[in-house]
Specification:
heterodimer; A: alpha/beta; Rossmann fold; six-stranded mixed β-sheet; four-stranded antiparallel β-sheet; 6 helices; 10 strands; globular; B: alpha+beta; six-stranded mixed β-barrel; 12 helices; about 55% helix; binds adenosine-5'-diphosphate; binds magnesium ion
Chain lengths: ~230, ~375
């Protein structure tokens, strides 16, 4: 399988002087097309930071992130914004849906940012709400939806612009075990295909079984990469 | 409308409480600003009412005249001198004074009396009832039907009254473009009768009204009048002089200016505060938009649009409220003085845009600074 993302010797620290913390230290890895790649590790090990570095949200101190043959961190701020808009779909840990917009408007946001016409955006967004099984909730505000439903709205918003790369940060953190498992089953079966790459940050071992490969982190470094979703020992 | 603006609008308007507070703040500020400046415009227009209503192009007066009400009479030779000047087509006297009218019930009511040149009647008002020529009949007066008309017990044609112990009879009812400032009725009569009926100092001519042969002749007339120790002004210059007098020498102007600034600051602080809170509360949403791929320029556009939208709505409501109150005031308060004109509206609009700009300034800064990474960290 070909590489979707190639991370080379990434470094990232926060703060200065004695308060300086090294969040990511010489991290290199690849994410491949068609795979569901897990990044796991204890809290504070640098998972979120790493996810941000590879998705064009946080600039590394050193190292490169190669997507489609170019280093995304060599791009201008506007080009990076376009990269995020066109290439990456985000599912944030606490969803960050807009309570003052309807569910379908929430899903349509990436299309609207892509300057798609309003009515067409709504039409496409509704189709994606259908994909995640929430078409009948389209005109409700997301606050009227359950946690699991909000998570599915966030997924619909992440995929509506048909990005190649999907990044999820702790997608099941606020869901019960059964719901979390169901949603990730859905992601793996319905959303993943061989032209897509999904990177999931989690420390929820209940969903480890769905991973194609798994990167284990500790103290800002990768300590292990393995195929499949079982951690031995 | 571009999609992101529609989103911006929904984010703003659907936040009912904050949107309402924002609108109330701006509406209140605009209301105050328009109200105060309109009262000021009204005062200025009414202060120049004699100038506007008479309609003469060039006015000759004593150099110490500050406003049309305080006339300083001119000796007759000034009239003759002006008449003989180059560029003067004709020049006529205008009498301007105050008479005491005794009403049927024995009450005395002061009234402005304007005496028009007997041969030309230059400066005459528009007649509503009666004929202008009747001004030459015995004891004839024409009464102006303005907001003060009722103070003369709303006389009709043929009503008689006493003025400074002379008999007066109403032969006509007239209308003038602008009412006067000081809340007293206005009577027109001939120059000769005014001089005869009203007490006079040594001189009787209030103003010499000049019709120049051409616009180009005006500067020379002004100069020639200055050479004989008097002052000539065009009607526009006279109005400006009057308005400067009220603006700078009576305290009215400074007070109104002061209150306008206060209205502006109150509106700015309410709406600035509310808008800032609105943006702060939505900061992580703006961060999420950034993470998803919105550019700073687009977020700034959204914020400016929100601020402008709220301002324009508040402006509309404020102007509307102000107009209603002024209309009501004019209807129910006899000497209510306020005029909404273009400069009031323009000033309020400039101030509302300033409110919008200043309110969004801090918000824009915040939004530009927000790091999408913060959204990711949860
Ligand atoms: N904005 C920041 N400022 C300072 N320290 C930070 C910041 N973001 C992350 N860190 C630090 O970097 C390390 C890695 O954080 P993070 O990537 O959030 O870990 P994880 O997602 O694995 O819990 C932690 O020590 C954390 O405190
Ligand atoms: Mg994290």
């Amino acid at each position: 399988m070909a590489e979707a993302i190639k991370a080379i010797l990434l470094e990232k620290s926060f703060g200065d002087g004695p308060a300086k913390t090294y969040a990511i230290r010489s991290v290199s890895f690849e994410a491949l097309w068609g795979e569901m790649l897990y990044v796991v590790g204890p809290s504070g090990s640098g998972k979120t930071t790493l996810l941000s570095l590879i998705s064009g949200i946080l600039k590394p101190d050193a190292g490169s992130v190669i997507v489609e043959g170019r280093d995304i961190w060599g791009l201008s701020p506007n080009e990076i914004a376009d990269f995020r808009l066109n290439k990456v779909g985000f599912v944030f840990q606490d969803y960050h849906l807009f309570p003052k917009l309807t569910t379908v408007e929430n899903v349509a946001i990436p299309l609207i940012l892509k300057k798609e016409d309003w009515n067409r955006s709504m039409k496409i967004a509704l189709e994606f709400l259908e994909v995640v099984g929430l078409a009948e909730k389209a005109s409700l505000p997301p606050t009227k939806l359950s946690g699991g439903e909000q998570q599915r709205v966030a997924i619909a918003r992440a995929i509506v612009g048909r990005p190649d790369i999907l990044v999820f940060d702790e997608p099941t953190a606020s869901l019960d075990g059964a719901t979390g498992k169901k949603i990730l089953d859905f992601v793996k079966n319905e959303i993943l295909n061989d032209k897509r790459c999904i990177v999931i940050v989690t420390h929820d071992s209940r969903i480890f079984g769905l991973a194609d490969r798994m990167i284990e982190m500790e103290d800002g470094q990768i300590i292990n990469v393995r195929s499949g979703g079982k951690i031995e020992g | 409308m571009r999609g992101i603006l529609k989103i911006a609008l929904k984010l703003l308007v659907n936040d009912r409480g904050k949107f309402a507070a924002l609108i109330v703040g701006i509406t209140f500020a605009i209301f105050l600003i328009v109200q105060l400046t309109s009262i000021f415009s009204g005062i200025l227009a009414k202060a120049s009412s004699t100038v506007i209503n008479t309609g003469a192009r060039v006015w000759v007066m004593d150099p110490s005249v500050q406003n049309p009400l305080n006339t300083i009479p001119l000796p007759d030779y000034v009239l003759d001198a002006v008449r003989s000047m180059n560029g003067v087509k004709y020049a006529v006297p205008l009498y301007s004074g105050v008479g005491l009218v005794k009403l049927k019930n024995g009450v005395y009511q002061p009234a402005t009396v304007l005496g028009l040149d007997d041969t030309s009647l230059i400066g005459r008002p528009d007649m509503i009832e009666g004929r202008m020529e009747d001004i030459f009949a015995d004891n004839a007066f024409i009464v102006v039907k303005d907001q003060e008309y009722a103070k003369l017990d709303s006389p009709s044609l043929g009503t008689t009254f006493e003025i400074n112990d002379h008999r007066g009879v109403v032969v006509g009812i007239a209308r003038v473009p602008v009412g006067n400032l000081f809340g007293i009725p206005t009577l027109y009569t001939t120059y000769s009768r005014a001089v005869q009926y009203l007490p006079n100092a040594r001189f009787t001519i209030g103003y010499v009204l000049v019709k120049p042969k051409s616009e180009a002749a005006i500067p020379a007339i002004i100069k020639d009048v200055a050479n004989i120790g008097y002052m000539a002004m065009t009607d526009r210059q006279f109005e400006i002089k009057v308005s400067n007098y009220y603006k700078y020498q009576t305290g009215v102007g400074t007070n109104i200016l002061f209150m306008t600034v206060i209205g502006f600051l109150v509106g700015l602080s309410i709406s600035g505060q509310t808008f800032y809170t609105f943006v702060l509360e939505n900061l992580e949403k703006f961060g999420a938009l950034k993470a998803i791929g919105a550019k700073n320029s687009e977020l700034v556009l959204m914020i400016l649009f929100q601020a402008t939208f709220a301002s324009v709505v508040g402006y509309g409501l404020g102007v509307g409220m102000s107009s209603l109150l002024i209309a009501a005031g004019k209807r129910f308060v006899p000497n209510y003085t306020a005029d909404i004109d273009y400069w009031n509206l323009a000033l309020a609009f400039v101030l509302v845009l300033l409110i919008a700009a200043l309110s969004s300034l801090i918000a824009v800064k915040k939004v530009i600074r927000v790091q999408p990474f913060e959204i990711f960290r949860g």
